[in-house]
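To: structure desk
From: M.T.
Subject: fold request, one chain
Message: Could you run this one when you get a chance? Sequence is below, nothing fancy, just the single chain.
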Amino acid sequence: QVQLVESGGGLVQAGASLSLSCVDAGRTFSAHDMGWFRQAPGKEREFVAAISYDGDIQYYADSVKGRSTISRDNAKNTVYLKMNSVKPEDTAVYYCAGRWDSSGLYVPKKLPEDYDYWGQGTQVSVSS
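Reply: Done. C-alpha cells follow.
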C-alpha cells in the first residue's frame, strides 16, 4: 500500500518562498518517479514539476521554471518542492504523485493520468 502525505502549505506573501514536502509511506519509493501538481479553484489539475526515481533528472512547467526546485531524498522517502518569488497565481492545492515505470528509461510525465497514486494535497495561498 502506498500513501503520500504532503506538508508545508499555508499562507505566504507574494515574493516569498515556500517549501513543500511529501513523504511516501510505501516501501518502493526509490523506484518511483515523482511529480508535483496543483489545482486552483475552478481549474484543472496542472503539472508543476517532475523528478526521476534517482533524482538525476528534473522537469518543470514553464510557469514555475527558473524559480522552483524539485528534489528528493530516497533515504527519507521524501520528495520536495521549493518555489521562490511566489505569485498570487501560484495559489492552489498542491499534490504530489508517484508512478512506476518498468522501462528504466525516464521520460518526464506531465499528465495526471500518467501517475498511479496521489497524496491528498496541501493548500498554498499567496497574498498580494
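Reply (cont.): The mean pLDDT is 94. Let me know if you need anything else for the meeting.
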